[in-house]
């Protein structure tokens, strides 16, 4: 049984797509996979959320569970406060993850935004969940300018809280990367203090399931069942530029 906590350096960095890609490869490898979304914000009860995207891309064999849904596009704590709905407690999240873990080979816990986004007024966050579960953390980062600072801050906080960063994944690689993005292929692992475990192309969320699985295999490390080689990718990306 394995649990991975998926966090981002911010909002819109490709965290859900990355979670779906890891899930898709695991399912293709015959694993039983669960994805837990503790808090979904900015989505009404009748609208599809991140977990629907995971199932659409990774397949219906993935077990999904969402604990709270808030309509306002805010942090879970702020969204709960505005809506009057109950907040989330890290213990509830950890228990849900543990329950899923007993019946699955891989459980992915996808946070909302970054590692320290607040779940409640006490400041409880995804970092507390990862610590209580003893789970490895995957950082999903942007490719371009500014990502090194955000990645380093995330890794430093994680380390100080006793967490282990398994690696960093670029969640949305542009079709025409600039100098900063190309340089960050080498610098992101330094900022994270952990290896580059994948680079996924931007726009992957619109792919068919077959195309998505092919891209996931090419863009993720053998650690996840993929074929991604960071040195080979960097060499090819630089040559194309």
Automatic annotation (TrEMBL):
Catalytic residue positions: 37
Enzyme class: ligase
This protein's record includes keyword Magnesium: yes
MF annotations from Gene Ontology: ATP binding; dethiobiotin synthase activity; magnesium ion binding
Keywords: ATP-binding, Biotin biosynthesis, Cytoplasm, Ligase, Magnesium, Metal-binding, Nucleotide-binding
One GO cellular component term: cytosol
EC number: 6.3.3.3
Catalytic reaction(s) noted: (7R,8S)-7,8-diammoniononanoate + CO2 + ATP = (4R,5S)-dethiobiotin + ADP + phosphate + 3 H(+)
Named cofactor requirement(s): Mg(2+)
GO aspect biological process, one term: biotin biosynthetic process
Ligand binding (Mg(2+)): 16, 53, 110
Subcellular localization, as worded in the UniProt entry: Cytoplasm
List of residues binding ATP: 12-17, 53, 110-113, 201-203
Pathway in which this enzyme or protein is active: Cofactor biosynthesis; biotin biosynthesis; biotin from 7,8-diaminononanoate: step 1/2
Ligand binding (substrate): 41
Keyword Transcription listed: no
Family of the protein in this entry: Belongs to the dethiobiotin synthetase family.
Subunit structure: Homodimer.
Stated role: Catalyzes a mechanistically unusual reaction, the ATP-dependent insertion of CO2 between the N7 and N8 nitrogen atoms of 7,8-diaminopelargonic acid (DAPA, also called 7,8-diammoniononanoate) to form a ureido ring.
HAMAP family according to UniProt: BioD
UniProt-recorded name of the protein: ATP-dependent dethiobiotin synthetase BioD
Source lineage: Bacteria, Bacillati, Actinomycetota, Actinomycetes, Pseudonocardiales
């Amino acid at each position: 049984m394995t649990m991975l906590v998926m966090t981002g350096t911010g909002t819109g960095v490709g965290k859900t797509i990355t979670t779906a890609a890891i899930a898709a490869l695991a399912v293709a490898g015959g694993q039983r996979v669960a994805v837990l979304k503790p808090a979904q914000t900015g989505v009404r009860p009748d609208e599809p959320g991140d977990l629907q995207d995971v199932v659409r891309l990774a397949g219906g064999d993935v077990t999904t569970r969402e604990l709270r849904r808030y309509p306002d596009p805010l942090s879970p704590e702020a969204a709960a406060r505005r809506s009057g709905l109950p907040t989330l407690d890290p213990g509830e999240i950890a228990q849900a993850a543990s329950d899923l873990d007993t019946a699955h080979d891989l459980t992915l816990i996808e946070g909302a935004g970054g590692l320290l986004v607040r779940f409640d007024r006490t400041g409880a966050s995804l970092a507390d969940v990862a610590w209580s579960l003893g789970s490895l953390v995957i950082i999903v980062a942007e490719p371009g300018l500014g990502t090194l600072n955000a990645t380093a801050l995330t890794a430093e906080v994680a380390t100080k809280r006793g967490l282990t960063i398994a690696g960093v994944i670029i969640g949305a690689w542009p079709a025409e990367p600039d100098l900063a993005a190309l340089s960050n292929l080498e610098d992101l692992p330094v900022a994270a203090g952990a290896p580059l475990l994948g680079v996924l192309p931007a726009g992957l969320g619109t792919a068919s399931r077959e195309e998505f699985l092919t891209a996931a295999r090419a863009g993720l490390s053998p650690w996840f069942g993929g074929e991604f080689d960071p040195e080979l990718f960097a060499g090819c990306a630089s040559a194309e530029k």
